[in-house]
Amino acid sequence: MNRSLARQLFQREIQQPDEQIHLERAALYIAQEEYPELEVEAYLNALETMAADVEERLPIEFYPLKIIQTINRYLYDDLGFAGNTTDYYDPRNSFLNEVIDRRTGIPITLSLVYLAIARRVGLPMVGINMPGHFLIRPDLEDVEICVDPFHRGDILFPQDCEERLAQVYGRPVALKPSFLQAVTTRQYLTRMLTNLKVTYIDRGKFDKALAVVDRLLLLVPNAPLELRDRGILYYRLDRPVDAQHDLEAYLTLSPTAAEAPAIRELLATIRQANQPLSDA
């Protein structure tokens, strides 16, 4: 499969209403641009097999905590899944196929595996954008716990979450309801792609980062920060006309942003370089 077809499949998937987007399928389409030979159905079947294995181990009583403990034993003890603490910023940690194959990843991709299994065995769970660390939680009333798939499925009660927040901020922080709000499917994919974009930029792989930003703009059209980043990437890839277009669009949308003066300076440099030389 070529990359343009993978992009088309991703675009078609995310054009549906949010509740109809198949999260794991969309994530695999993201990976398919990096791995053109990836067979999406094979990895979806792998998740189905994992869920079936968990279902065989479930207790008779439907009790969320026991289901979570069963998933934890299966994923972390039996299969050996673990957070990638040795090479956290390896791009492979952002691709669902690699996470399934290598059984390691970052919080958001390990959460995706966990969510896929939990939903298939009848436990509705959602992702939450806890500051500093992505978590998941059961989507059930009166169940006030979170799960940390990066740390072997640690079960966190509200006090535990506040302790995590204190570690992030370096001071006590109250657990706000917004911290536990479920992310939409588009928000989930956006965060996955944002992580990948940052990884590629940090490694100087600007062409790959550009491809990621293009997909972010499919998810969130005309997002100012993504237009800014794409414009800068175009500039670094020696595509000044495209850079100028995106950076001008960014300033139109965010004229008073803190970085607006720096972007105006960059635009002046681009325009000056693009001016035709006057006849001698």
Quickly list its features.
two-stranded antiparallel sheet; mainly alpha; two-stranded parallel ribbon; 12 helices; 280 residues; 59% helix
Care to describe what's here?
This protein has 280 residues and is mainly α. The chain is built from 12 helices and 6 strands. The strands form 3 sheets. Strands 1-2 form a two-stranded parallel sheet. Strand 3 (125-128) and strand 4 (135-138) form a beta hairpin. The model has no long low-confidence stretch (mean pLDDT 94).
Radius of gyration: 21 Å
Order of helices and strands: HHHHEHEHEEEEHHHHHH
Biggest beta sheet attributes = 2 strands, parallel
Mean pLDDT: 94
In the sheet with the most strands, the strands line up as 1-2
Number of strands: 6
Using the alpha-carbon principal axes, give the shape: globular
Report the portion of residues in β strands: 5-15%
Q: Give start-end ranges of low-pLDDT stretches.
A: none
Explain briefly what this protein structure is.
With 280 residues, this protein is mainly alpha-helical. The chain contains 12 helices and 6 strands. Helix 9 packs antiparallel against helix 10.
Q: SSE layout and pairings?
A:
Elements (H helix, E strand, L loop, with lengths): L2 H12 L8 H12 L5 H18 L6 H15 L3 E2 L12 H7 L1 E2 L1 H14 L4 E4 L6 E4 L7 E3 L5 E3 L1 H12 L15 H18 L3 H14 L4 H13 L3 H14 L6 H15 L6
Helix pairs in contact: 1-2, 2-3, 2-8, 3-6, 8-9, 9-10, 10-11, 11-12
